[in-house]
Write a structure and sequence with these properties.
This protein is an alpha/beta fold and about 350 residues long. Helix content is about 45%, strand content about 20%. The structure holds alpha-L-arabinofuranose. Alpha-L-arabinofuranose binds next to helix 2 and strand 9.
């Protein structure tokens, strides 16, 4: 009887000790995990990104590229804000990034002007600002560190040069050529650059009549609306220059509805910008004559710039992304297959 009781006491004691060890070890384990999580969180680079909106397929691809780059696995904590095409929303977002004391601010300025004050505030707070996609028009360039984006003027020149060559090939280089231009958001770098670039080529040709340029805000709906007014106003349009693919989609719909034809075998030549997958399909089937690429995959470039800044290396004031020109001759199945946006 006595033996039985002492045996149970020993077992009970052992169980008690084991439970205590487990509890102690468990709490230590949790503390370690918490500490580890805390350290990781602190080590992460906090980036505030103000995207200007989601007006186009290009923009969606640009947003995805940024979100895929600034991941927790890559060591970042991303605060993303969509300004829905409004500069005031971008200003608010940037100010909130400043008050949250992020490590870097990245933003894609909807228009070029009106940024001095907020950039000054970021500079005073010691937060480096990186421009993405578009540029700002400021006197003091030290207000931002660098800009990663496209050479929009070069894109406009490419469109003009393509038209020059095409008209020579068609033996129409001395014929009167009527052109209408659908422009993107007024005052944006992409609108300013593409207009200026195309203009430098156009002014060398007295026979190129630019009938009208009108803003269609980089959207398909507006593109269709503006194109309809052009078609009513001008019965003999030869060329449409549309400053992005979304406007092009709308414009093509309007032209087809009016009973006219487009593209390689049509009445109206279509020159577009961006080269998103849907538009490249239209280049391949001859609906769009030429598409000047604008590369939205800027996330990787931004990562590299931040790596350099973290390593205290000097960065350039401008980094241009790589871009091509697509016609029916070079839109291969390989190009189409590789297009994720
Ligand atoms: O700034 C880049 C331009 O903005 C792209 O061409 C257009 O699609 C986007 O909305």
């Amino acid at each position: 009887m006595f033996r039985k009781r002492s045996y149970s006491l020993i077992v009970f004691g052992l169980l008690l000790v084991m439970t205590m060890i487990l509890l102690l070890y468990g709490s230590r384990l949790f503390t370690d995990i918490e500490e580890e999580a805390h350290i990781t969180q602190e080590d992460r680079i906090v980036v505030g990104v103000s995207q200007l909106g989601s007006e186009s397929g290009w923009r969606t691809a640009n947003t995805e590229s940024v979100q895929q780059a600034f991941t927790q696995q890559n060591g970042y904590f991303l605060i993303f804000h969509n300004a829905r095409q409004k500069q005031e929303n971008q200003l608010k977002a940037i100010r909130s990034f400043i008050s949250q004391r992020v490590d870097y601010i990245i933003f894609s300025p909807v228009v070029e002007t009106g940024w001095e004050t907020v950039l000054q505030e970021a500079k005073q707070a010691g937060i480096p600002v990186i421009l993405m996609d578009r540029n700002v028009d400021v006197e003091d360039e030290s207000l931002y560190v660098t800009c990663v984006g496209s050479d929009f003027e070069a894109e406009g020149v490419k469109a003009g040069r393509w038209l020059e060559k095409e008209l020579v090939q068609q033996r129409r280089s001395s014929e009167s050529i009527n052109i209408v231009i659908l422009t993107g958001t007024e005052g944006s770098s992409s609108q300013i650059g593409r207009s200026a670039g195309f203009e430098t080529v156009a002014e060398r040709h007295a026979n190129w009549n630019i009938l009208e340029e009108k803003c269609a805000e980089f959207t398909s709906t507006k593109g269709k609306e503006v194109m309809k007014t052009f078609l009513k106003r001008y019965p003999d349009i030869d060329v449409v220059v549309s400053q992005n693919d979304d406007m092009t989609f709308g414009a093509i719909e309007a032209i087809k509805e009016s009973g006219r034809t487009v593209g390689v075998d049509g009445d109206i030549m279509i020159l577009s910008f961006d080269a998103v997958r849907g538009a490249l399909d239209m280049v391949a089937d001859g609906t769009i004559n030429v598409d000047i690429e604008c590369n939205p995959n800027q996330g990787e470039y931004l990562l590299r710039v931040i790596d350099m800044l973290e390593a205290e290396e000097t960065v350039e004031k401008k980094y241009y992304v790589e871009e091509d020109v697509f016609t029916i001759e070079n839109v291969t199945q390989e190009v189409l297959g590789g297009r994720s946006y």
